[in-house]
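Hi,

I'm pasting everything inline rather than attaching a file, because the server keeps stripping attachments. The sequence lines come first, and each chain or strand is labelled.
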Amino acid sequence: MMRALDLAEAVEAGDLTPSALVELCAEAIASQPFDIHAFAHLDLDGARTRAAHLQPKGGLYGLPVGVKDIIDTARMPTQFGSPLYKGYKPKADAPIVVMTEDADGILLGKTVTTEFAFLNPPPTLNPHDPAHTPGGSSSGSAAGVAAGLMPLAYGTQTGGSVIRPASFCGVAAIKPSYRLLPMTGVKPFAPLLDTLGVFGARVIDVAFGLAAVSGRALRVDGQDFGAPTFGVSRFAFAGAAESEAEAALTAAIRALEKAGAKVVEVDLPAVFAEAHAAHRIINNYEGAVSLSYEHRHGRDKLSPILRDLLDEGAAIPIEDYDEARGVAHRARKACFGVFEPIDALLTFSAPGGAPGVESTGNPQFNKLVTLLGLPAVNVPGYRSAEGLPVGVQVIAAFGEDHRALAAGAYLEAALAKS
Amino acid sequence: MMRALDLAEAVEAGDLTPSALVELCAEAIASQPFDIHAFAHLDLDGARTRAAHLQPKGGLYGLPVGVKDIIDTARMPTQFGSPLYKGYKPKADAPIVVMTEDADGILLGKTVTTEFAFLNPPPTLNPHDPAHTPGGSSSGSAAGVAAGLMPLAYGTQTGGSVIRPASFCGVAAIKPSYRLLPMTGVKPFAPLLDTLGVFGARVIDVAFGLAAVSGRALRVDGQDFGAPTFGVSRFAFAGAAESEAEAALTAAIRALEKAGAKVVEVDLPAVFAEAHAAHRIINNYEGAVSLSYEHRHGRDKLSPILRDLLDEGAAIPIEDYDEARGVAHRARKACFGVFEPIDALLTFSAPGGAPGVESTGNPQFNKLVTLLGLPAVNVPGYRSAEGLPVGVQVIAAFGEDHRALAAGAYLEAALAKS
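And the predicted assembly:
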């Protein structure tokens, strides 16, 4: 994989130019063992032109970045993974794209998204095994970073669309606190849930990327933040995990204890189970609202799984939706107590390794965290008996993105040593 | 003015057809004493075609509706009041537009907005006196309803863009609780603040319209909800009001007391003054983010007042923005105590009657309410010595939109009797 932090340091030191970096990506894309279909639109020419004129000083130092194809770009097609938007070119770049270029990042291309960031499997393949899904909906971003095609990429999470594909592909990722990154110009699915996130090789790379694009002091490399206290929960309300996910979690706990961190089992408040269930109401109701025009006027060009979801969402009584929002509000308030005695919560990223390509996997361990708006980091490192990556999820209190990243980096280092 | 509720009842009773209603609008538009420039795009033909085929059963019963021109419409240009979007046609209708048609409303046209819903005065005139502004940024919606060109119209409020023009134009309006209406497909300015609202002749008309489009039980006509308890505050942290605003507030208090309502002076928590100041940081920072593409690539086509705002917003340190969000969070929590002993808060809608056309007036008494996400109703009724309308603002706790509307309707009836 391409390590964003190391590459940026090489550019800063004058050992690497942005143009050379773009060529590294071009070569990696051209020499894939099999085409993972990471890109909905690749813009190597645009990237080369920009790299040639860039005197990188901004935080991204000329690093190429992949942009999930539900994020508006004025110079590249933005197709939302749907034939309804074939060839669509928005009038403006989304602010996250402008911020990327302001930070001297280079847009490499648009990465494959599932249709409107829902569940219909896209053509993207898991670089670890083409018989397996890379996960979704940020399929191309996770798979592309995992395959070493680019050092950083953006995704979005409404259910589990950042953490789950990161786990399946064996890359680090953060779904930051709700609204840490601006959602303007990102096709909405459920605005109360939709959150932009960042993929990279390691947690320190992801922290570097998020810090550079957001302008916040979020880097966690080169510093010792001490041993965090982790609370472990298996999110029983979300259903059972498979044995490989349990093994990954157990390996993480052992590595942490060996490294000297305190690990305690925690009981989550009862309202979290309610909130987990409320996610479905909010997701489906808001999805049917956000995509109401496409639902009314483009029905025959929607996948069956999305059409069914929109039909279901449109039938949810408004009272149920308002009640679900009330549950979410109560659950968010209950978070203060949860994180008072711990730095971070440790749980599954996904129910197991990547399933086959007929689905994008289950976001069951991500939905609550998205609804609560908490920062969550996927920490890679563990491999299943099949050789597939299985990550674990590190979660911190709202607004404590640095704490989530520091705890994630601590765990990643502990796993590497164990 | 056209009374939405009465017209809907006439359609339901079979005394009026949607086609006849559209012709009423067409005649009113054609026979204005002076052109108030309410419409950025008028679609009488589209409205006539739809009316001819409509068997109205949905809650809006064939009523024509004006749509502020920062709301996406696929069939009509959506120009955001900016030459940068001249002739722009979005790919999809915003959900609020789909919901309007689902409720059997008829789109009459796009109403004039200030440039990107900020402060640059548009060509729209106040129907009460063409030397005065109708207010902004929902200028065409407020003025058009006031001039009797249509029974209902949508606006948005980020600072005071619903309540202030309603006050200046002498119409009722509600800025509902944050997120009561979906913002997808509405050009963002400051997403933490942006809120869709509804204009109508009377508070009961506005409640009818909001209930019909949102599917919520928000009507307040034909029922007696009893005498509410009002808390009065003059929002001292927001600066002074002019004598005509004070006179309007005094008249409202007298009318309420005469009608038998309890009116008490209330002290607002100190954090509200901080939150009032924090609005500026959030508004300007997020404005610069939301319009970052236009700021970088269309600078020469922005008005000087917007360009200055975006320059200022882009220079706000991220720490200040994050701190302002923290203040907003604390102020929202403090609201529970404020509304515990009262049903509604009564204050100024605007600092006085409509100023001249060189500005759109000052949102000083609206910014805090927008930041807190509280439902606010403009209650018209008072006229200044100059003959200009001056409204008062009725505010309720978050999610208590029905209570705000009921209290507003109570006050409106009390004013009519006094």
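The longest strand of chain A covers residues 376-383.

If the labels don't parse on your end, tell me and I'll reformat.
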